Fold this sequence. Notes:
The structure is a single chain. With about 270 residues, the protein is α/β, with parallel strands linked by helices. About 25% of the residues lie in helices and about 25% in strands. The protein has a seven-stranded mixed beta barrel. Helix 7 links the parallel strand 9 (about 200-205) and strand 10 (about 230). Helix 6 (about 185-195) packs parallel to helix 7. The longest helix is centred in the N-terminal third of the chain and has 28 residues, at about 1-30. Bound molecules: zinc ion. The site of zinc ion has 5 residues, from strand 4.
Amino acid sequence: MRAAFFFITLLLLITNCDNQKNTDDAGKFLSTGKWLDLTYSFNAQTLYWPNNSTGFKLDTQVNGITPAGFYYSSNSFSAPEHGGTHLDAPVHFAKDHLSVDQVPLTNLTGDAVIIDVSDKALKDRDYLISVKEIEDWEKKNGTIPDSSIVLFRTGYGKFYPDAKKYFGTDAKGPDAIPLLHFPGIDPATAEWLTSQRKIKALGLDTPSIDYGQSKDFKTHQVLLGKNIPAFENVANLDQLPAKGAYIVALPMKIEHGSGGPLRIIAWVRG
Ligand SMILES: [Zn+2]
């Protein structure tokens, strides 16, 4: 009994030391640098896929002075899952795979590598990001470390929320889908990244990880089929360094959701 008491006390002491160390490490990590918001605000301009019949809607429920004399404000909102800055959960394109509430937090937090393909993508609206782009990045920066979040910067973020420039069309409805022209990730690149490297998540500054002209959404199928989530319509990627940023990407926890609005931020070490 006494031995058990001693053991528990020792365990508590060790746990406390560990917590203290973690807090110290976190404090050190956060001592120089800044948070950067990689999220577009949700509002009436938020971009959704052309066949979505509704967008983001905020309805005022109460706004004003109550009979008791204090100010009170409360709204209700509605929105499709996939639009604005959002997360694609694996179940979006892979039956019985993880839904948005099931994506592990470890996939949503971690060190990021930013691969800039804007030179080519801005010249060609149908550009497919190739394995060569990654190889070129690795020649300069070293092999993508295990457990990285990989973000591609196409440069199209500067067009958001101008649908015509960002999507290639501002037309709406199913007939507008063949008119979509924006760059995306070649399925072969998704295959390579998920077999040759160990990545936690993939994201970019366009509406979709597949390019606008895709008919089969093969990049979605490859990535999500391996239970790796995607971040789309990511903002401010031009402000991130090639490596050294730490990402926190937390979607709304919609049970059984195929995706959802995402608050994604980056800690950029100073
Ligand atoms: Zn999506």
